[in-house]
Design brief:
With 304 residues, this protein is of the alpha/beta class. The chain has two domains: 2-176, Rossmann fold (3-Layer(aba) Sandwich), CATH 3.40.50.720; 180-303, N-(1-d-carboxylethyl)-l-norvaline Dehydrogenase, domain 2 (Orthogonal Bundle). 50% of the residues lie in helices and 16% in strands. It contains twelve helices and twelve strands. The strands form two sheets. It has an eight-stranded mixed beta sheet with strand order 5-2-1-6-7-8-11-12, with helices on both faces. A four-stranded mixed beta sheet has the order 4-3-10-9, covered by helices on one side. β3 (44-48) and β4 form a beta hairpin. The mean pLDDT is 95. Belongs to the ketopantoate reductase family.
Length: 304
């Protein structure tokens, strides 16, 4: 199967390397010529726990890619989804499937515009992925992937994607109710990313600093009310357990929102906190604390 990974950051490289290692034909696509040159020269090295492997890989910018593919997996951050998908339309046929495992909500709407609802697969992953200074992609073996279709016609395709990812070692499964794990991750990210981005605190600081903990608790409660009124049967206890686990095991971690703010890059505020905020407005469920924290991040983005 021919697969294009759009967005060759740490997460894209993690998935690309696993797929290549199991025999899939993968092209890494990125807007940075420097990133592409590095992948073509050095390949991709992944270290997961105590295990390490290396694969040779092919990378190119979208304009330098001309081979149509069976599957396009988008790993860009939310602010870049529209431009990323637009850049690779010449690689898409009437049979090409689009897959988004991106953070947040709303990325799938942009894929539907290009692939249609029957060829759009959505999902979530909680695999961590970080590119170190030595170029190695670091991850952990405890993550998993869940995928599903937007409607019945896409479920068979989603099951195929789940099987391919699972065979590549990504602990993947198909879930016809995939919006449940997606919303659970969005709420988890809203708690940590929003507060971290607004305050400059690490994951540990979000719950160690009383004022930040109050913000996080309010955002959690507001988000739970929104998803309840949306009629999505999330597992509240699982979200709370994941929040506690992150605090206990990743206290020194800087969230991606904070890293983006410090680096002066666009954040995913609109696909994480902003998406919950908009859902709340649509169904008449206010999110005053979340909205205020989102605005603080928006102000920081504009100032930078």
């Amino acid at each position: 199967m021919k697969i294009a990974i759009v967005g060759a950051g740490a997460m894209g490289q993690l998935f690309g390397a696993h797929l290549i290692a199991t025999g899939q034909t993968v092209t890494m696509i990125d807007s940075s010529e420097m990133v592409c040159e590095g992948i073509n020269r050095d390949g991709i090295k992944v270290r997961t726990g105590s295990q390490e492997f290396h694969v040779n890989a092919t990378a190119a910018t979208a304009q330098d890619s001309d081979d149509v593919v069976d599957v396009i997996m988008v790993f860009t951050k939310g602010p870049h989804t529209r431009s990323a998908v637009a850049s690779i339309q010449h690689l898409i046929t009437d049979e090409t499937v689009g897959v988004s495992l991106q953070n947040g909500l709303g990325n799938e709407e942009l894929l539907v515009e290009v692939f249609g609802a029957d060829r759009t697969i959505i999902g979530m992953t909680d695999f961590p992925s970080q590119r170190a200074e030595d170029g190695v992609i670091y991850s952990e073996p405890t993550g998993h992937v869940v995928v599903g279709g937007l409607r019945g016609g896409a479920h068979i395709k989603a099951q195929l994607i789940a099987r391919i990812l699972d065979e590549s070692g990504m602990n993947a499964s198909f879930d016809p109710n995939v919006m449940i794990p997606i919303w659970e991750k969005v709420i988890f990210n809203a708690v940590y990313n929003m507060v971290s981005g607004a305050t400059g605190l690490t994951v540990g600081g979000v719950y160690d600093v009383p004022e930040a903990r109050d913000l996080a608790t309010a955002i959690l409660n507001e988000s739970l009310k929104v998803v309840e009124h949306e009629g999505i049967a999330i597992d509240e206890e699982r979200i709370r357990e994941n929040i506690v686990h992150a605090h206990q095991n990743h206290a020194d971690h800087k969230t991606s929102m904070l890293v983006d703010i410090e680096s002066g890059r666009p954040t995913e505020v609109e696909t994480i906190g902003g998406a919950i905020e908009r859902a709340g407005k649509r169904i008449g469920t206010p999110t005053p604390t979340l909205s205020a924290v989102c605005n603080l991040i928006r102000i920081q983005e504009r100032n930078r």
